[in-house]
User: What shape does this take?
Amino acid sequence: MPCYSIEGVIPVIDSSAYVHPTAVLIGDVIVGPDCYVGPAACLRGDFGRIVMHRGANVQDTCVVHGFPRQDTVIEENGHIGHGAVLHSCVIRRDALVGMNAVVMDEAEVGAASIVAACAFVPAGMKVPPRSLVAGMPAKVRRELSDDEIAWKLEGTRTYQDLTRRCQASMQEVEPLTAVETNRPSVKSVEVKSLIETRRGD
Assistant: This one.
């Protein structure tokens, strides 16, 4: 994977983490145990430090960066959805940042909170624990239910399982030119989307 030092500061990746070979890590980046960093994610620790705590995930095409002397931190079980941008902010334990959301400088997403897809969390905003925030700019919409928090944790555990699956079997290959007979499916754990869960499917 593309890992770069700057001024002698080298990224750190725990041996139990999985970082996709197309992700880019630069400088003062610390990826903790059981973390997942997806394809084409960019973690640029060339100004401030970036820290991922145990079990956190940063999914494909996310950008994580920050101002000089400001850390960007994703605490344990933090869940950063596809295409999100984090800049000099703190994502507390068990929080989720939805797809294409932006969390700005010195904002703090409280423990077990959810930032909705495409939300813009402005600089300095303090999201209370167990809150749903949405909009541009983001506003607190309501408190999350126990079921919603449990659903989020289940989703994060699927990424922790994906970390193990990638370590065990991910490899670069040449594509097939035709679909084979009895084509297998990937053997991921079963997890339902929130809308599917609410329908009771």
About this structure: Helices lie at 146-169, 194-199.
